[in-house]
Amino acid sequence: MMKVCRACLSDKLLYPLEEEIVTEYNKLTNLNIKISDGMPQFICKKCKETINEFVKFRDKSHSSETTLRENITPVILETQIDLKTEVKTDEEDEDANDFQTALDIDIIGDISETKNLLVEKDLIHNLRRKEKQSNKKSRANQIGIKNKHCKIKNEEINRSLQCGICTQDFSSNILLSSHIETHKNSRNCELCDRKCSNWAQLLAHRMEHLPNNQQRCHICSMYWWRNSNMELHYKIYHFHQGPGWKCEQCLKQFEKPKKLYRHMNVIHGEIKFFCDYCSKGFRSKTSIAVHILKHETQKHLSCDLCEYKTKYHAGLLNHKIRYHTMSKVNCKTCERIFKDQESCDKHKCDKATTVCHVCGIEETNRKLLKHMKKHNPESIYKCHRCPAEFRTSNGLKVHINRHENNKTKHCEYCPAKFYSASVLIKHRRTHTGERPYVCKVCSKAFTGNHNLKLHMRVHGEFLIKKKNKDDVTIV
């Protein structure tokens, strides 16, 4: 049976068909498919989300239609009744006016002038109707104006502008603005005892203590829904300062408030999400979503240039840059790999180094974790086929590949295959001509460090130490 999506024939991120999905799919397409009908029994993630969106849209439409039918029908009847009453009143007015014209004709008694009088009465009748309509509009406008004035007066009476830094209230914006300037030399909030680093941050912080209709800039009444954006507004437009934000807990600088907001949630935020498999806590949804992939056994993502498979999108992107990109560039500071020189130049790295307390070597924080395993004899990985032991899981994987004769590393210049990435890197230098290991005595260059150590025998230095056959190898 083909392992493809039943809807779009895709072979990525497949899920088995379920009864609920099949029924909704049949309602949407009128195809009447069934489970175990000899056709592909899978559906991709995108099509599954599309069907779920269709179900939500259908349910929402049904609920909206029922509410509309329940609420709009009596309103239509009321409008019809009002129209009937208005027609009756208009007919009564017309009958009264016709009766008046008949009396006038009888009083005058001149049959020759009846036609002219009727024309004049029609004109008078139309003028009276227009006057009535204009009077109604003027009355409605007067009533509306009175209501507006009453609302404005009530708002002015009930309105109290709060300071947000202290407990005082004011009746006008002028008094509020002059009072806020008295807090300019202070950096402490009197309502929650918070200490702010600058005046703009204190003004942005006061929004937390104000009601929703007063959370605006006290100078220009501009509204921002996030305090960091309000702080940026005060700095640029009112204080003419350059943008810059500092984390109050770790004192790290950021160029944009969005990056500071993300840093506070990821690094210093509360742990809100917990893994169902191992109960590990995380501060964001994205972190726990990436973590859950560790517990999955199937690798959904695969490289289209080789047989590499992974669970992570970042791992697939890093693999393509590292092994299938000819113009890749390494950052000399943090040793990160980029696809070209332009992206490497845009990169800003902070190389935070730490000194090992055992041997005194200085390494980056990422490399120091691997380095500390050399000083810990308990952190070793044992091979289940031979007595070999390793300090890293990667070393054990390479060793097992040698047992199984599984060469997973491919050269992009020739058909050669290797067990480990270090041997592939050394082999690749034979194609590129790179020789980074240079002899300090005769300036001869080599592709690998081992070749340089062998060469140093010529100068009387024996740098390679042989191991006894009885010793267990710990790599």
TrEMBL record:
Which PROSITE patterns does its entry note?
A: ZAD, ZINC_FINGER_C2H2_1, ZINC_FINGER_C2H2_2
Its name, as the record gives it, is: Zinc finger protein OZF-like
The record's section on SMART domains has: zf-AD (SM00868), ZnF_C2H2 (SM00355)
Please tell me the species this chain comes from: Bombyx mandarina
UniProt superkingdom: Eukaryota
**Could you state one GO biological process linked to this protein?**
positive regulation of transcription by RNA polymerase II
GO (cellular component) term, any one: nucleus
Q: Which UniProt keywords apply?
A: DNA-binding, Metal-binding, Nucleus, Repeat, Transcription, Transcription regulation, Zinc, Zinc-finger
